[in-house]
Amino acid sequence: MSSGANQQNRQRTFHELEHELYLREFEIQLLKETSEAVSSHLHLDQLFQLVVERARDLIQAETVLLPVIDRDCKQYTYAAGCGKNADEIVGESLPLEYGICGWVWRHNRPWWTGILDELEPEERNRWEQEAGTVIMVPLGGKKHFMGGISGINKIGADNFSKRDLDLLTLFASQVSIALEVAMNIEELEAAQKEAEKYQQELQILNKELQITNKELENLALYDHLTRLPNRKLVQDRLLQQVHTARREKLPFSVIMVDLDRFKEVNDTLGHHVGDELLKKVGMRFKHALRHMDTIGRLGGDEFALVLPNTNAEMACLVADKLLKTLDIPFDLESATCSVDASMGIAVFPYHGDDVPSLLRSADVAMYIAKRNQDGYFVYDTKKDKHTVHRLNLAADLHQALDKGELQLYYQPKLDLDSKMISGVEALMRWNHTERGFIPPDVFIPTMEQSGMIRRYTIWALDEAYRQRMEWQKAGYALSMSVNLSVYSLRDRQVLEYIQSLQEQWRPPPGALVMEVTESAVMGDLGYVSGILSELSSQGVQFSIDDFGTGYSSLSHLKRLPVNELKIDRSFVMEMDSDADDATIVRSTVDLAHNLGLRVVAEGVETAETLDALKDLGCNQAQGYFIARPSPPDELITSLESNGWTLCRTDDEAETVGCTRAAPGH
Ligand code: C2E
Ligand code: MG
Ligand code: MG
Fold first, then answer.
1. Quick one: which atom of ligand 1 is closest to the CA of 460?
2. What's the average model confidence in pLDDT over 499-503?
3. Are 186 and 194 in contact (CB under 8 A)?
4. Is the C-beta atom of 394 inside 6 A of ligand 1?
5. What CATH number does domain 231-381 carry, 3.40.50.300, 3.30.200.40, 3.30.70.270, 3.10.450.50?
6. 554 pLDDT above the threshold of 80
7. What's the whole-model pTM score?
8. 520 C-alpha vs ligand 2 centroid, how far in Å?
């Protein structure tokens, strides 16, 4: 070799070395910069991008991709990429058993052309096409395998060199920690966001729960109508007050309040007016009291007050003040209305030293106030005896049916044209095992007030329908009148029960008559008229009982589908001796006939009255002169032995007009 050629060779070697050196410097510089860059970029997307771009520069690949394995190691997703076709691949996900990434994960070692020699024969065919053009190193974090960095197609050469593999391996180990940290941070942030979202949802739920709890508490402890504490809360406060008063040795008072004639307001003006009145009364009372006092509604028109540190004298002043609040009439939506109240005062510890005895004493005192029309009354043991049995009435009434103490008696009605007994009225009787006979005027209001009226009305209806049928089977055609309380007339369940009885027993039209008082049908005319029409269409007739004692207007009566007027016994009983009563009876008969109604006179006690009624054209008579109310098994025999003729069959009933419908109806 000539010295010139040697020189040339040396120069080339020198250039190659210089280039090699340059490359090394570049690589070192790149690694250094990368190292700095990754530690300052914490945002994962930016970091991914930086890694693929630097890796591409480092190994001179046409394309560099960064597949990341998901948490449950089922698939990997190309999280970043750069170079040729990278855009199309980034974002794609593939199953882990598929592709080189899966291989790298399974073997936990880099993929490179040199690997080819190590592959099992069956693996070779599968991978060897790609081996020359792809390089991939695993990206292992501190805790787990994250994915890899792969290069595709070496620029300017057939495949990647061992040096590329070493560089990429070094590069991967350099960036993996930063990537893992960034990925963890992102996961942490996502988890934090999720937690914040849950927390917000939890807060909303908590708020809703609080509202629901409050509503539930309100329902459980406050009266829905007046929003005042209910019986339970009043008793609770009372118990607390008993404890405090015992500890501090101070008296306190309980006042039981019951509105006077509230039932009349309800019956005549309707329940919604009654409700409005209760609300306003509650408000007035509340405003008249101190902050520390409790006023609650126990139910119906009954209120109770708990007044801490209050002796009998002070309680009387409070009662006076409360009564005065009722002096001004109440302006209600549809009427102006006045109401009075009766109040009973009981003082701890003199009239009771626990909750039940205080409430009972206040109740007894209230009854005395009501009876004496005194406004209020302070409990007095001496007067207690008279009232105790009234309180027990409701309790006894609960068992009256089971004990067989209740019975229906029947009082006949005489048809004045045919002089035949054409029907009966069912009247409830209570024969108390200890107290003896209790009149219906006393126990029916108790049934109404204690919520038992439905149960007893249904019982009476059952009895009456069954008894009428029994008589029909025995050959007697008697119409059956049943009294319906105002509560029952507004009770859908009772009305539906009557309908079901009509369907069950199928009595002839007009054989069942429901007696309702004047006041019961007043008030909500549209509603009442609807109900009467509904039952009328099934053959049930209606009678206005105790006519003359209420204040029903003619225009009202005309619009209601009623069939009968029953003149109140107070007019009938005195008509022989009292000219005014005779006039009232006469004009009522005329009025009823003008309206096309049948007229029944109740309280006929003498033959003279009976004759007078016949002369006036009254249709039917009922009273002691004909017969007193009696048990069903005695009625027929006693009537027949006294010479009365009874309507015997439906045909006969029709010919004599015993069960005929009123003219015009
Ligand atoms: P009412 O429906 O007006 O019943 C007529 C009342 O007059 C009965 O009183 C009856 O015994 C009485 N009476 C009948 N003839 C004469 C007579 O010639 N002279 C006198 N002085 N009185 C006579 P009773 O049985 O005491 O019933 C009183 C009220 O109790 C009934 O008045 C009715 O409003 C109510 N009542 C009775 N049973 C029931 C029932 O099952 N349900 C409902 N809701 N109320 C009933
Ligand atoms: Mg009646
Ligand atoms: Mg009556």
1. 41
2. 96
3. no
4. no
5. 3.30.70.270
6. no
7. 0.51
8. 13
